[in-house]
């Protein structure tokens, strides 16, 4: 039986081999390549969430932006010579904030007699804003 080649994986591997010298030839730096990879990871996560599961994420970009903003402030004020420190701290800050929001939502859902009484007004408000 023939094994099917993973064409998308081969295209991605070829892109990873070709793009760095191409970026340098165009006068761009590795910072540009790093930004492209970061945005590509965010887009892939959003694609998995929206495309494969059908869930709409209104806060996906907000968490990504909050982590980037926290990392930038940490690097500017406290960790000028570090790259991984602010990035790790930004992820930890966003994790803590997301856990706090999740805990608050859990408390609201635990102390209500019906989940629909909580979810329906939220969905109605979102529908009013979008429509």
Question: Can you give a write-up of this model?
Answer:
The structure is a single chain. The protein is mainly alpha-helical and 131 residues long. It has two domains: 1-56; 58-131, no CATH class. Helix content is 79%, strand content 0%. It contains five helices and no strands. Helix 3 (60-77) crosses helix 4. The longest helix is centred in the C-terminal third of the chain and has 27 residues, at 84-110. The protein is extended. It starts with 6 loop residues before the first helix and ends with a helix.
What separation lies between the terminal Cα atoms? Answer: 52 Å
Helix share, percent: over 70%
Major beta-sheet overview: none
Class by SSE composition: mainly alpha
Order of helices and strands: HHHHH
Write down the Rg.
21 Å
Average pLDDT reading: 77
């Amino acid at each position: 039986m023939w094994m099917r080649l993973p064409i998308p994986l081969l295209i991605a591997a070829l892109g990873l081999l070709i793009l760095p010298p191409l970026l340098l030839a165009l006068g761009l730096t590795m910072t540009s390549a790093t930004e492209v990879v970061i945005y590509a990871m965010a887009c892939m996560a959003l694609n998995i969430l929206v495309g494969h599961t059908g869930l709409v994420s209104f806060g996906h970009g907000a968490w990504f932006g909050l982590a980037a903003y926290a990392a930038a402030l940490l690097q500017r004020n406290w960790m000028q010579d570090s790259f991984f420190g602010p990035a790790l701290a930004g992820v930890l800050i966003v994790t803590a904030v997301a856990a706090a929001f999740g805990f608050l939502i859990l408390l609201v859902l635990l102390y209500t007699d019906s989940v629909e009484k909580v979810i329906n007004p939220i969905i109605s408000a979102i529908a009013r804003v979008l429509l």
